[in-house]
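SAMPLE LOG
Freezer: B-3
Tube label: C17
Construct: single chain, 849 aa
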Amino acid sequence: MPHRGDNSVMAEGETTSTGSRPDDTRPGGVRYQPLVIVLVGAGVGIVIDRFRPMPVFAWWAIAAVGLCAWLELRRRRWEPAAAMVLMLAIAATAAAWHHCRWRLFAANDLVCYARANAQPVCVEAIALGSARLVPAPEPNKRNAMRAIPLGDRCRFDVKLTGLRDGVAWRHASGRARLEVYGRLPAVEAGDRLRIFGRLSAPSAAYNPGGFDYGAYVRAKRQRSSLRAQFAECVSVVAPGGGWGPRSLIHRVRSHGNRILQRRLDPRRAALASAVLLGARERLDPEQKQAFLETGTIHLLAISGLHVSILAGLLMFVMLRVPIPRGLALLVVAGAAVFYMLLSEARPPVVRATILVLVLCWSLYLGRRALGFNSLAAAALIVLAVNPAELFHTGAQLSFLAVAGIMFFAPKWFDSEKQRDPLERLIERSRSWPARMAWVLGRIARRLTLISAMIWLLLLPLVMARFHVLEPVAVILNTVLWLPMAAGLWFGFATLVFGGLAAPLGVFFGSLCNANLWLLDSAVTHAREIPLSHFWVPGPADWWLVGFYGTLAVFAAAPRIRPPRRWCLALLAAWSAVGFAAGPLRDDPRRLDCTFLCVGHGCAVVLELPSGQTILYDAGQFGSPSSGSRSIAEFLWSRGITHLDAVVLSHGDIDHYNAVPGLLERFSVGVIYVSPFMFENPNEATNVLQEAIHDSGVPRCKILGGDVLDGGEDCRIEVLHPPRRGALGSDNANSIVLSVEHLAHRVLLPGDLESPGLDAVLAEEPLDCDVLLAPHHGSRGSNPPGLARWCTPQWVVISGGRRWDSREVRADYEAAGSRVLHTAECGAVSVTIDPSGVKVEGFLPPRAGH
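STRUCTURE (predicted):
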């Protein structure tokens, strides 16, 4: 082994025995970190290909020419030019690799057959993992707002091998996510399956500000989804080998899950599976929401924290076992790699594992590794596996947090090592309880300081992606460090001994259960603390680029870094720019009406010239949380944090089940309902009334003839229901709004149908420019008669893909109207200003609609 003081073999950046450093700095004291420069070049290439792509052969050609030019320039010793050309070659290589992973798919990839509208298929595929059970949601108030109850499901990824075409089979390729409704028999990684299901393309962002799920799974090269209605639709044609690496890893993970289920309380077992094995399927959605709102969601996703706790404990033990040092470090490195594979090698885990390997190697050689160089190496490996990770929030948060710790922690804590020797002597003279209290206090101060630094550093990105600001996270993450670490240690012990020695498994399981109970209880109670979290719009992407780009430049080039007070002034100025450049209304006389895409449901946002915002209906047939998230994301994208009024047209659940979630995220002035909405209460309407009552928002009843406050030049009139109401279902008593501005009108009739519809049609005809098709485009809404009565130029159908709206579309088009369907073109925006009426969809029409 090389001697520690042998400068000839020292790594760059290592401190010598005399405290000096080798010549590894540049002018200004900037330490040389070559892989950081390589990472910057690779990142630039990936970004360029994502937003300004070129043919892949062009990228490879640039990379080859650049490499040849670099060799020639190095031969002539033109170092600056050689460095620039090498960066160009690195950027082109990264761009080419990103192009291959993001844009190039086989000609027989299943995506070639996938459409937005699901279609029946029969395929053969190989399971890439064991079937993961997603249990039915527990009965609670939120689930009472679902129109269709959700049962058990199973999810796993598959690799396609064949697609049946009539009686013949075609060769097919590609990856897909399979979701099966019901409990599947044992399916293991490597099994060959035959699947009868429905094939569709993953949904894109259908509303401004919405999450693009299609892009998210595309980064994994999954561009199609399969759904099987029954477990019997999936059969095992041939079992897998059983002892391949992938199969072995999944078997170990499944065995670990079974051990946790046996040894822990059911709620804690689901939490343990998430923090130990990365299996979050069994977590209750409310539980995950609590972790998000308290800034502790990172505890549920296996990350560097988990790997460092595992590696730290194992290294502490192994270095005290009487075995060679190299063997002990090898065991630690092997355990870290195995745990990375066990947790599906997510980018944060890969990053942490690489840093553990670098640490083990440096300890073995007796050298000190360059921190940022090691972090850049980890990032380059992650991008080599999947260059699209550069755009994923999880990877960004993980690397950014570690970079912040590497930059700030030495500056803050090195001063403690240089304390006066007299202070150290006084400290050693104290009693052991006093010394222990002082050590624990120092650890708590350090953890709090690091927690605050990470929170502040990540805050803009968290606000932009999750729209939540959680001050409670600073203290909570410090408090939870000990139960989290203890829960992980005892959880790992439960996994190791649970299948070998039952008494030890029970013992460690009880300790793990207790610590996870503390963790879960602390998060649940912290969520209820007033002012613990706030829902916010978040900064724009260009602001984030400017903010983090400036931080990176100041960190890399301290010579140009201004004094601290000027840094604070720059931050304040940049924040002011971000607030000032938010969504602005360029014409105060403009009215914006947006029909959001919420599946089979309705949500219409009215942004009035007076600055008021009114929401007409807020619900969907599926998950209430999904509906409230879609509406909230649009409102935040518009910079809206307050709703002046919410109008609920009637008592169908797909028109109001998102309201409780919105009341938690936004302040609301008033909620308007018809007098007949709560005449026949049920569990869902009771939950709605309770949410309105708890929020303190006043509830007012409106009837035909009432006029709502819309400011100057905007008249919002209630056309229906009449004071005596209409016979029939809730639909017949839907609130019908007429929104008129600058002699143009938008008509919002909810789910109006006969006999209420007949009463409206019996009134004087009312011309309108834009009509919301009643009842999601149902034939029962009398499209021909309604089109003759109000002669709309545009008709918007707010609904899902399952309903066949072709006849309704034909009826309106025959009357001279143009029809837009939110399932086809996403959100439909209507703008009324002095120039007239402008109507457009968020997405262009796509094949398969």
